[in-house]
Write a structure and sequence with these properties.
Layout: H1 2-17, H2 26-48, H3 50-54, H4 56-73, E1 79-83, H5 87-97, E2 102-108, H6 119-126, E3 133-138, H7 141-155, E4 159-164, H8 165-172, E5 180-185, E6 188-194, E7 203-207, H9 210-225, E8 230-231, H10 240-251, H11 270-276, H12 283-298, E9 306-310, H13 316-322, E10 329-333, H14 337-346, E11 354-357, E12 370-376, H15 387-397, E13 398-410, H16 419-439, H17 443-457, H18 467-476, E14 480-487, E15 496-503
Length: 506
């Protein structure tokens, strides 16, 4: 079986080997030698290896490994793709085996490349050329602090810069905020770039197309010429004040993204939010009720269940959805770039079940419909004027007999056209939550609530409404619904947290 597969390669490989008379040609000869060795090894497996002869499973594993090599070798033009996890090995090989191998790169630490503080990162350092330039991009100060020792070591060997992800996106644009490397040896250039997130298997593509390489060189030069990346000095940083100054230059005074790419993180620090929001007085009970409604409704459903979560934020509720065993697919949509990076990181290993997307909940409309659509502490980020469009879009995504389950914060009854009355209602609700947080000693949570209140008063990303307003919008969208108040109990003049279950009449 394996022999037949290898023999089938020869027509393609002969074309490849025919190039060996042209310069540069040294590795064409080596490829021919390796191919011959592979053929010899397959012959040995067939004739001498008793384990292979007798074990069907063993045969299949070997067959699949050769098949993958064959598939990756077919129709090579200007791009050759490999599993992303193998990228460090190939980079190390290039740096070790090719003289004067010069690398210019942007590394999104812990977004795609998680190996910098591991032995693999040390090996990349050891084999690096002193002329290399690498810009390390960090999502948070915490990540920067964790990797600072590694940055210091790398800066002693080659040119190292650091930048925040927010500033990187501002300079290059969200679509160009990605890892890539440009590798150059004796005039030969190669681009290494991670493939799109939506592929099932994450790949790294090595690209020889000169136009693609030139485009990425322009991006790299644009980044360096902006003077925003901070140079990491090669000397050891010993004083705390020097480290603090370096950190401040990297992360402070951020230039905002375009408004369409930033929502909640424009007015809330999303790192503390992700760590503390679950301590909100009523959040846990609300999420439990939402799951309870789902389990009751889906108890007799033996078919595969698809869930869409809109405004997934940093994935606090998504984690709970992922624990439900009878759910086959979760699509978690989040528009805010900062929140999305945390969300994506949480489900990197569960990509077959949980698909995370940096999309707009108001317009996201994929092929296929969903059995359930969830929104957890998210609907109040949709402007009131946009909610009709938002609900129309939900209707397009919801299967017949499907449910929309919404858990959110609602204000007391007030006149939405009276700004003072609305502001008073906002203060009544948030002051109640802040007082509870302070009483529990949760000062970070209290500060997050203060930020949310301020954003609501400024109408800057937080657009809470009363239950009466929300229900009017649901009725206009032709939804049937029921609601359950989570808390506070026995208090009616401050608003509260509610769960709405909505469906379309059949």
């Amino acid at each position: 079986m394996c022999q037949a597969l290898v023999n089938g390669w020869f027509p393609d490989w002969q074309k490849f080997l025919a190039e060996r008379t042209r310069s540069p040609h040294v590795y064409f000869r080596d490829i021919g030698n390796i191919l011959g060795r592979v053929h010899d090894e397959v012959e040995t497996l067939n004739s001498q290896n008793a384990y292979v002869k007798k074990n069907l499973c063993f045969q299949r594993v070997i067959y699949d490994s050769y098949s993958q090599l064959y598939e990756r070798s077919r129709n090579i033009e200007s791009t050759f793709s490999l599993p992303a996890s193998q990228y460090p090995l190939y980079l190390i090989s290039l740096q070790r085996n090719l003289e004067n191998c010069y690398v210019k790169a942007i590394a999104l630490v812990n977004v795609e490349e998680q190996f910098w503080s591991q032995p693999m990162g040390q090996e990349i350092l050891t084999t690096s050329c002193s002329e290399n330039i690498r810009v390390f991009a960090f999502f948070s100060e915490k990540e920067f602090d964790y990797h600072l020792a590694s940055l210091r070591e790398h800066s002693k060997k080659y040119n190292v810069y650091a930048i925040s992800l927010a500033k990187l996106s501002d300079v290059l644009g969200a679509n160009n905020t990605k890892d890539f490397s440009i590798i150059e040896v004796s005039g030969s250039k190669l681009l290494a770039v991670y493939d799109d997130d939506n592929t099932e298997e994450k790949n790294i593509s090595f690209i020889a197309d000169l136009n693609m390489i030139a485009q990425h060189e322009e991006l790299f030069e644009k980044l360096l010429s902006s003077k925003i990346p901070v140079f990491i000095p090669p000397h050891t940083i010993q004083e705390k004040a020097e480290t603090d100054s370096l950190r401040a230059r990297i992360f402070k005074d951020l230039v905002p993204y375009e408004r369409k790419l930033i929502e909640m993180s424009e007015y809330i620090d999303v790192i503390p939010y992700d760590e503390h929001e679950e301590k909100h007085a009523y959040y846990q009970d609300m999420m439990s009720k939402m799951i309870e409604i789902f389990l009751e409704h889906s108890s007799n459903n033996s078919s595969p269940i698809r869930i869409l979560e809109l405004g997934a934020g940093t994935g606090i509720f998504t984690v709970r959805l992922n624990k439900i065993t009878n759910v086959t697919e979760i699509v978690a949509v989040e528009i805010d770039w900062h929140c999305y990076q945390i969300l994506k990181g949480k489900f990197r290993e569960q990509y077959k079940k949980v698909k995370t997307l940096n999309k707009d909940s108001r317009t996201y409309n994929p092929e296929g419909e969903f059995d359930y659509i969830f929104s957890s502490f998210a609907d109040h980020h949709i402007k009131t004027a946009d909610k009709a469009k938002y609900f129309d879009n939900i209707k397009q995504n919801l299967k017949p007999n499907g449910l929309m389950i919404v858990g959110d914060e609602f204000l007391r009854k007030h006149d939405p056209n009276d700004r003072d009355d609305r502001d008073s209602a906002l203060k009544d609700y948030h002051s109640h939550i802040i007082d509870i947080a302070k009483g529990q000693g949760e000062m970070i949570l209290a500060e997050l609530e203060r930020q949310a209140l301020q954003s609501g008063l400024e109408e800057k990303g937080d657009f809470k409404v009363s239950c009466e307003q929300y229900e009017k919008l649901l009725k206009q969208a032709k939804f049937k619904f029921k609601k359950e108040k989570i808390r506070p109990e026995n208090i009616d003049n401050i608003g509260g947290v509610y769960v709405y279950t909505a469906w379309l009449p059949t």
